[in-house]
Amino acid sequence: MHKPQNHTPLIEFNAVTVMRGGTKALDSVSLTIGAGENVAIVGPNGSGKSTLIKVVTRECYPLARTGGGMVRILGEETWDIFKLKSMLGIVSNDLQSMCDRPIFGHEMVLSGFFGSIGLFPHMQVTERMEARTREIIEFLEISHLAAKPMTEMSTGEARRILIGRALAHKPKALILDEPTNGLDPHAARKFSNSLRKLARAGKSIILVTHHLQDIIPEITRVIMVKDGTLFRDGAKSDILIPKNLSELFKMPLEISETNGYYNLLG
After folding, report:
1. Who contacts 144 (Cβ-Cβ below 8 Å, separation ≥6)?
2. Looking at residue 3, what is its pLDDT?
3. Among 34, 90, 149, 244, which residue's Cβ finds the most Cβ atoms within 10 Å?
4. Could you give the angle at which helices 127-139 and 155-166 cross, rounded to 10 degrees?
5. Which of 50, 56, 61 lies closest to 88, judged by CA?
6. Quick one: pLDDT band at residue 162, thresholds 50, 70, 90?
7. Which tens digits make up the pLDDT trace of 10-25?
8. Contact 106, 119 (CB under 8 A)
9. Lowest mean pLDDT among 45-59, 80-94, 172-186
């Protein structure tokens, strides 16, 4: 099992089991992700990888069991949900589907301070929030989207704005659930470039995906999830090999690597 280098883990699971619709979505999963690690969680659709993240964000809860079912975030088992969301920046397709009104890009990034989708009249925006929003937009190179309504953005543009929203509170880690779904190759590469810039700036990345090409070179650890259990866990170069991938996706597969990016060859 891969051992994180940091002494205070970002995430700890001890024998976590989650039931969803009468089925075990996770089955006695134990893992540790250290603060500062860049990790990819990989598995086919329905493998349990998204449920794993929903446990972290408190959208799902593990079964209470003797000797198991423990989840700690930054060493704490109990969190205020709003405070937790300020520590972990979340980017998901569920969040993007909620952007159904004409919210401008700048407003969407700013709304990250309130945990909302856009701003509402009772919210008090400070100059510090505005300054942080401008800093994020400049860093992500999305100034051209600041005055564009979310409803008029491409999927890739909206996804980059949502990264900005997730960064409002300077979270300890950025968690991305299937971030390139719906993106064409050009938009997916632009999205990856934004992630690489964040990783090089020191932001911890936790990437959930079934697309190997989503895994940026800065990710050093891969956790494979299969049928609700941890299938493999370790250094990227040791885990992303044909034998493991063929077993994970239940079909013969080969793999290629170019400039730190991996691709499946069916």
Report:
1. none
2. 46
3. 90
4. 130
5. 56
6. very high
7. 999 999 999 988 889 9
8. no
9. 80-94
CA angle (16, 47, 179) in 5-degree steps: 105
Instruction: Tell me which residue has tokens 């589907």.
Output: 97
Structure tokens at 11: 């995430």
Average pLDDT, the chain: 90
Rounded CA separation 123/113 (Å): 10
- How confident is the model at residue 266, as a pLDDT? 64
Residue among 31, 65, 35 nearest 48 (CA): 31
Rounded distance, CA 242 to CA 251, Å? 10
> What burial class does residue 193 get, using C-beta atoms within 10 Å of its C-beta: 0-12 exposed, 13-18 middle, 19+ buried?
middle
Decide if 25 contacts 228 (C-beta within 8 A).
yes
What number of other Cβ atoms are within 10 A of residue 57's Cβ?
16
Q: What is the mean pLDDT of residues 40-61?
A: 92
Question: Can you tell me the distance from the alpha carbon of 173 to that of 88, in angstroms, rounded to the nearest whole number?
Answer: 5
- Residue 10 contacts residue 35 (beta carbons within 8 Å): yes
Q: How far apart are CA 239 and CA 231, in angstroms?
A: 10
Q: Which two tokens stand for residue 218?
A: 């800065």
Question: At residue 134, what is the residue type?
Answer: R
Model pLDDT for residues 65-121, shown as the tens digit of each residue: 767 789 999 998 888 887 888 889 988 877 767 777 789 999 999 999 998 999 999
Distance CA 115, CA 83 (A): 10
What type of residue is 40? A
pTM of the complete model: 0.90
Give yes or no for a contact between 71 and 56, defined as CB atoms under 8 angstroms apart.
yes
